[in-house]
# Entry
Amino acid sequence: TIYLLTLGILLSTSTAYSQYCTVGVGPTSAADSNIESLSLNGETLNIVDNPACPGVIGVEDQTVQVADLIAGNAYTVNVGWGTCSGFYYNGVGQIWIDYDGSQTFDAGELIGSGIADGVAVVNDAFPFVVPALALNGTHRMRVMQWEGGSAPLDPCGSYTWGSVTDYTITITGGTSCGPATALTASNITGTTADLSWTPDGGSVTDNVEW
# Structure
């Protein structure tokens, strides 16, 4: 694994890979905008979700639902942006898959973006290809609907009405070399610093460049 670091980046990301953001994320109300349906067919395991109403405050944990994907292959997520109130509202929906196992949902991991039109359920189909160098293992897919929001959404954002649901994605056929964790710097002087980290399980040697 090669890590491109500056001291500033190292310090600012020392906890970036600790865990997925789930606290203080998503809607503060269980009413109004909500995902109506979602499906993703994997190789042998499929995610099929038809969320019930009322909605869930915060992040709805549906990680028991799993889709198994292969790096380099193409798939499609089907989602219905809907409501739990009987009235429809304008908003934005987006979907991310944590391909690199960093436990963050980066802009480059966005696989779909749709708009709820305030008239009826909007059904979107988002085709995507799993990157060839996606990290093998178990990751999350996050689906967010944000009433009144505008793209790009913050996958860790908090708002009043909408929904956030997490599912499990397993990836094979990609890379076994993932990000390091627990990045720290100590004994910092004007010209030196002691760096430490926990290597990912697939690394034989780690390289640090500055």
In short: The chain has one helix and 15 strands. The radius of gyration is 19 Å. The chain has a mean pLDDT of 88.
